[in-house]
Every structure is written in structure tokens, then in C-alpha cells.
Amino acid sequence: SPNNQMVVYLEMMATVWHKDLFKLPGNHEDRTNIVGVDVGYWLAAMLDLDYFPDCCFCIIKWRGNNFRIFAHHGTGAAQTKGGQVMAARKMLPFMKTFDIYWTGHLHTSNAEVISQTDFDGDSLTYERNGLVIISPSYMHYWGTYQAKKLYPPGVRGLAVVELQEDGRMDTNLHARGKRL
Fold it and tell me: Rounded distance, CA 77 to CA 137, Å?
């Protein structure tokens, strides 16, 4: 039941919520918001997290660096790797300049480095790279809506970006699953 799902979610998040910066809803939360109650908002409130109803722009200020992040749940139903990359990149023409553009939704994983140009306000131009990240999911496949509709299984795992003191951003994709 939805009530049970919220309790299970809060129990799962209890040990890691302090590592979260904010909460964004996804397409599944829209299904529960039929009477004007935003479950994502209330879950964020219970975890004392900032909540953004569509996307989030934030800056992580760390060791003299300003890491600019644009995060969105993601959209689309692309099945091919190229289509998924294009779906993740669809906001790039509007997002100038970021360090990390982080999305999900497609239940796949990808980390791409892109070239950007930035200006410091004093007419100096800087070349800088940005990351476009598609996060995998932790959803199981068998016995789910996805399996019933014969959608291909999503990738299970974790995308990690490690911020470095010199301004570099290192990314890793972790694969999850039992090794038989």
C-alpha cells in the first residue's frame, strides 16, 4: 500500500538521509498526487530535506571551489544507448554553465564528459569540462510493472561523483547484483 511504501522508504533512508542535499520527485510520485497531496514533499519534510517540485540548481562550495549542479529526475522512454544519452542531454542548450547535470528516470547508467566555455565577468574566458550523469536504479525487475509490460530490465547500481580539492570531478559507476 502507499502508506506502507512511505514507511519502508523512511526506514530505508534513516541511515543515509543526512548525506542527501535535497529531494526531487519523479514520474511515479505524480501517480500518487491525484488529490493534491504531494507525497515527495511530505517525505522530504519528514527527512528535513529541501524539496524541489521539478528540478534543482545548487552550488556546492567546497575548498575554494564552486561546483554547480543541475538535477532533474529525467524524462523519456529511450531504449537505445544513443537515445538515452540524447534524452539526458535535452536540457543542455538551456543549462549554461554547470559542472554536473544529473538525471535518472531511464534506469540505465552513463557518465559523459562535455566541453564548455565559461566567463568570469572580467572578460576572461575559461575552458571547463562538465559531467552529464544518468543514474541507474535500485529497482528489482521480476514481478514489477516493468516486467509485466516487457520493458527491458534497468541497470541496478550507483553513480558516484567524487569532488576533488583541485576542482576535478571523478565519476564511477557501480554495478550491483549477486555474483554467481
Answer: 15
Per-residue model confidence as pLDDT tens digits over 22-79: 999 888 777 777 778 888 898 899 889 999 999 999 999 999 999 999 999 988 888 7
Listed in sequence order, the DSSP H helices in the chain are 2-13, 27-32, 39-46, 81-89, 145-148
Nearest to 23 by CA among 2, 54, 1: 54
- In degrees, to the nearest 5, what angle opens at C-alpha 140 toward C-alphas 134 and 143? 135
Say if residues 157 and 171 touch (Cβ distance below 8 Å).
Answer: no
Rg (CA), the chain: 18
Residue type present at position 49? L
Contact 53, 41 (CB under 8 A): yes
Q: What is the secondary structure of 50-95 as a DSSP string?
A: EE-SSEEEEEEEETTEEEEEEEE-------SHHHHHHHHHTTGGG-
First to last CA, the chain: 33
Tell me, rounded to whole angstroms, the distance of Cα 95 from its chain centroid: 16
Strand 100-103 with 65-72, pairing: parallel
